[in-house]
Amino acid sequence: MARHTMRIALLLLMGVASLPSCAADTDIAPCLRQLRASAQSQAGIAPAVFDKFMAGVAYDPKLAEPGMPQPEFINPTWEYAGFLVDEQRVTEGREMLERWRPQLRYIQAQTGVEPETVVAFFGIETDFGRHQGGYRVVEALANRACGPISATAAAKARARQQLYAAIEVLRLGDAAPEEFLGSFAGAFGLTQFIPATYLEHRGRPGELLADGDQDGKVDSIHSVPDALMLTAKKVRADGWLPGLPWALAVTLPPPFDRSLALREKAFGGTLYSGVAKKLLDANRRPLAEWQRLGVVSTSPLDGAPADTPFVLLSLNDDAEGPYLLASSNFEAHYKYNFSLNYAYSIGLLADALKGRPAIAVAWSDNQRGLTRREIQELQCLLSVSHPELKADGRPGTKTRLAISDEETRLGWKPTGRTTDALLQQLRRETPPEQACIR
To answer: Over the stretch 361-374, which tens digit does the pLDDT of each residue have?
Structure first.
């Protein structure tokens, strides 16, 4: 009984336990009729246009009901950054920089945003285009707007506005209906924009278009330069500044008010972006003032004048540090996905693409995130006792439950985390003839 309870607790921790699904034949037709009726008054969408692009939309419990939390919101920063910013992604990112060098120069000339930063978003959002999502965007958003237990009325209203924006994307011809696919939340394209944000930054007549390949149209689904231009425009609009370090690793003096350091639970999460802005505004201080309070940077201060505003962050919700002073560039990373883990990983990858050493932070218990290749090896070693596992480098539910089982067997606290300690332990226990390729 205790073991069963522990597995349920782990499932909840990892966000893989959910409420029972509603009946598969749930009817959202009445809600869709209401959306059709209000589309013209709220968004100028004629009924015929609505009907054209909404044909075939139906209830899907995967879309209508609350989904699993995304890794950036539940994994520790060290684990999340480990498999996102690994040697493979850095190598491929450098190939992208070389392949699209002329277009990236054009994008930088138009927006001021450096190539390494926009390529970092491309790598982390869709693994350089490999994972754009397979849900129909209009169907995903319609289900979020009409689903029986799809969050709050306010969330449904936001989904409704995103749906109307998605129809406008189709009306503009920026995506073909059969190719307008994305995530369960309605984000689409090579750098994953939700429709309203896409329309905000694509450019209107007379404005700079997100046309990175300069062919006169915007296509963020097929054109890498267009997607990168779109990202650069958003990041710059969100406060990104050339030449400014995205963050400084810092240490705090012993007598210091730790409540001044924002933590993820207070700092972020998409539902709390308004709260996050208030916290950021209240926390933001010039570098000189943080130094006066005894905060010491362990990162080079090049490009950070004394009057540069920074926010003090903790990268750990439950333990001491590590701590960062985050600049407006970090905040621009953050506004892309409202996750501290995500913003930190974008900065790490951009630095790696520039050939800079990783920002030096020390994790509690000397934790180290595994690379995707190391996770593949860990999965291979686990598959001896858990044959259902695939060594794909992506730690899903089966991998995390297998890790929990092994940790329990070893008398460790079950966490489901892809730790270096477990990898080393299984290497020691595995006979040479069963060793996995390193």
So the answer is: 888 777 889 999 99
